[in-house]
Amino acid sequence: MLIPCFACESRFRPDEFFLACHDYHRGMDLVAWTCPRCGNRDDLRVLPDALGFGYPRRGRFDVQDRYKVPGLRRHRQDLRLDISLNQDVWHVHTRLHRLTAGRSPARA
Ligand SMILES: [Zn+2]
Asked: Which of 26, 50, 75, 84 is the residue whose CA sits 20 to 30 A from 69?
């Protein structure tokens, strides 16, 4: 099973693909993905048996296209998304600096 990059059409094994996921956004239920070949950045949602590609809109993530990945599972944690496929598990973490971005500087 290979998963394509929709920008450059390279195809990746699940391990290569999911290791390139970063920045889990729990509110919008999406992860960011950066193609290891062409550097294209995409947003996607991990769904049961599929990846959902789409766009953030009005504070939500709208899935426009689904790519079937039979056996794909997700487990939402507070600051992490666990993605599993067969025996493998990948963890995609939330970027913590986003949560502290509003904090005032310690010193003026
Ligand atoms: Zn690419």
From this structure: 26
